[in-house]
Amino acid sequence: MNEQEFEVLAAKTLTSLAEAIEDAGGDAELSGGILTVISDDDRTFLLNKHAPLRQLWYSSPVSGAHHYAFKGSWVSTRDGTSLTERLAKELAAAGIAAEFA
Q1: What is the pLDDT of residue 82?
Q2: On the CB side of 10, how many CA atoms lie within 13 Å of its CA?
Q3: Which residues, at least 6 apart from 48, have a Cβ–Cβ distance to it below 8 Å?
Q4: What are the C-alpha distances in Å from 34 to residues 19, 21, 79, 80?
Q5: CATH of the domain at 23
Q6: Residue 5 contacts by C-beta under 8 Å, 6 or more apart in sequence?
Q7: Is residue 21 part of a domain?
Q8: How many helices (H) and strands (E) does the chain have?
Q9: What is the mean pLDDT of residues 70-83?
Q10: How far is CA 28 from the centre of its chain?
Q11: What is the rounded distance in angstroms from the CA atom of residue 6 to the CA atom of residue 50?
């Protein structure tokens, strides 16, 4: 995937995630390629694009840092977990029951 394709895919992914979180009543802000989600108990979850490696990077107060590469879907480079699976599980534990397509 070239840089332009990555930028389009990453922007679409972040926008879709932000909308799903907001639809679930969560506090999501997308700005400058960084998605910030703050739970009711003041935990902050961050997801941002990292263009040089063509990855999405996730920082979580629950599980720490993870990097995701696109392989048909966004998959953790560490343990193979899908981004949406991890995000849904961790946000649900924080009181945000978002459903991701």
Answers
A1: 96
A2: 27
A3: 33, 34, 35, 56, 57
A4: 14, 14, 23, 22
A5: 3.30.920.10
A6: none
A7: yes
A8: 2, 6
A9: 96
A10: 11
A11: 10
Q: Which residues pair with 31 in a beta bridge?
A: 34
Convert 54-77 to b/e letters by CB count within 10 Å (16 or more is b): bbbebebeebeebebebeeebbbe
Identify whether 50 is part of a domain.
Answer: yes
Q: How would residue 8 be classed by pLDDT, with cut points 50, 70 and 90?
A: very high
Amino acid at 88: A
pLDDT of res. 101: 76
Q: How confident is the model at residue 72 (pLDDT cuts 50, 70, 90)?
A: very high
User: Where would I find the beta strands (DSSP E) of 11-91?
Assistant: 27-31, 34-38, 44-50, 55-60, 64-70, 74-76
Q: Is 84 a member of any domain?
A: yes
